[in-house]
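My main concern about presentation is that the manuscript never shows what a single data entry looks like. For the editor and my fellow referees, an illustration may be useful. For illustration, here is how one protein appears when written out as sequence plus structure tokens:

***
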Amino acid sequence: MPKIVSEEERGLVKDAMYDATIGLIRKKGVRKVTVDDITEAVGISKGAFYMYYPSKEVCIYEVLKQNEKALFARMEEIMQQDLRDRERCAALIREVMLSQDSLILFLSPADMEILLRKLPVEYREREAKKSDDYFKRSLELLKVGNDKMEAVAMLTDCLSVVASNEMFSERGKQEALDVLVMAMADYISKEEGV
């Protein structure tokens, strides 16, 4: 006889799957995470996994979208704070790029493209609409105009390289990230050079 699982227990397992998948993506990358990795990290069987998600790709996609939604909520909270443009911009960059649960630096466009190809059509259609909306909202929140977009994209790549570098001390890495964040904030904010 199958075990009866309450909605509360189901929610706890799904939360554990979310947290485990975030950690696995940060450690292994999107393409290398397996169902076995997730089930082992959560302590559930493969059969239990498939009660929650029809495939690894759907699981990862849903985790990415939940993570994205949470980051945007935090970004909007930062926008409500009484901060100067430069400090607000720096806080937004740190939250989106460097927070412990952010996946921005661990997800390449190629990873997303490959993931989407493996998902049913309705997911691809939904993603196309959401990506446009989130991209526009990000630019609006950061107040990045088209004239600065290319440079901001390149600076973001620099952040990614520094954040993923294991050759230097944590202190050195943190100092370099702080310099890059403040340089980006100076460049993006209305108060350039302040």
